Each structure stands twice: as structure tokens, then as C-alpha cells.
Amino acid sequence: MVATALLALASAFQIGLAAGAPWGAAAYGGRAVLSDGALPIAYRWASAVAALTLIGVIWVALASASLVGRGSVSGSALTVLLWALTAVFVLNTLGNARGHHPVERWGAGTVTAILAALCAVLAAR
């Protein structure tokens, strides 16, 4: 449940970025922010895709904990997905640690580090 709450928070942040919220300095290393604080359209599309992906990851976490149905997806496929997500979140944490904005560095970095650990715990079950 902690993983799904953090994933929902990250998804909401990405949805906000995609909608034009002035949080661009806290995303993508701060290198794409426009004068109004929003992101350029290409980055906004990237944030929309990221939000949809994170919503899919919520399903993976819930399905692996048997909190939602997993349909025809096997338990081993979920385990592989969780290990892959662990690696992705570790890499994302390293990228966030290099961010210029404190929200990206400390906020997002902490969230992705916790998500990496939680995905590893779910995968190892």
C-alpha cells in the first residue's frame, strides 16, 4: 500500500507537469523549464506517458500483493516486472540525485529510492 501511495503521488506530479503546472524546475534536471515555470510540449507529453506508466506500475504492485486480480499474468511475470522496476527505480534515484532542484534531488530521489526497495521486497516474496 505504501508503494501504491508513492506511485500515485508521483503520477499526480507527472499529470500536473503534463497539464502545464509551473513545476518544471523540479523535473528533468531543471533543464527544460520555460519562463512561466511549465515544461515545453515535448516534455509535457513525456510526463503524460510517465503518468500512465506509473498508473500501470500501481497495478503491478497491487496485483503482486494479490490486492487486485492479475488476469492471465502469471506470478513469475509479475516477479520479473518487479525486478525490472527495481532496477528502473534505482537508476531513476541516481538521476534524481543529480537534479539541481531540491524537490527533485531530495523529494523525488527519496521517493524513487523507497520505491526501489519496496519493489525488491515485493519481487523477493
Automatic annotation (TrEMBL):
Domain of life: Bacteria
Sorted UniProt keywords: Membrane, Transmembrane, Transmembrane helix
Transmembrane annotation, as ranges: 42-63, 75-94, 106-124
Protein name per Swiss-Prot or TrEMBL: Integral membrane protein
Organism of this sequence: Nocardioides psychrotolerans
